[in-house]
Amino acid sequence: MKYNSYVIFGLGKFGQAVADKLLEGTADVMVVDNDPDIIEAYSSKATSAIIADLTDPSAIKALGISNIDCAVVSMGMSLESSIMCTMISKECGVKWVVAKAGNERMGNILSKVGADQIVYPEEDSGIRTAKSLMASNFLEYFDVSDDICLIEMLPFEDWIGKSLKELNLRKRYGINVVAVKDGVVKEFVDPDAPLRSNEALLMLVHKNNLTKLDKNWIL
Question: Which CATH superfamily is domain 124-213 in?
Fold first, then answer.
C-alpha cells in the first residue's frame, strides 16, 4: 500500500535502504536516529532528519508523528527501542507500523505491542536469493530454521563424475549432502560414489552460503 508520509526509526543498513527507496518517490519521509553523522547525511535528502534517543518515550512522542501514515521500526537487534517506537507510534495514531525483527520471538513480541507487519530481512534475503537461483539450478527449497534451508538441485557440471569425498563440500563450503534422489530418495549417501548428472542432491545449507550455489560458481 502506498502512503503519503513515513517515519523511519533507526538508520542501520536496513533503515537506510528503506529510506533511500522511499525518497525516490514523492512522499514525505522523516528519519530518526541517535547517530548525528547519519542524520547529517540525510538532512538534505529527507523531509526531516532528527536525532533522538529511541528508547526514551518522551523523545519519541516529541517527534510529532500523529499525522504520519506509516512507521518503519528498523532496529532489529534492539528490542527495547523497537518496542518503544512501535507502541508510541500506535498510541499517536500512526495508521500502519512495520517492524523489523531479528527472530520469531522478537517478531511475536512486536506484534503483541501493536506492529501491523513484521519483516525478517535476513530470512527474506535468503528466500529471494534462493528463488532467483531456482530459475537456473534449484529444484526445491525448504526452510528448516531461521538460518538453515534444505535445497534440492542437480550437481554442477564440474561435480559430475566426482565423489562427495573428493569434492569435500561440507568442509570447504558448509554444505551437507543428506540424501540423493533418482526418482526415489536414497537416504544412504555413498561418499565414494561418483555423482551422476541425473541424480539430484538434497543438501542442508546455511542461508549465508546460498550465493555459493550460483550457477556460475566453480570449485
Answer: Regulator of K+ conductance, C-terminal domain (3.30.70.1450)
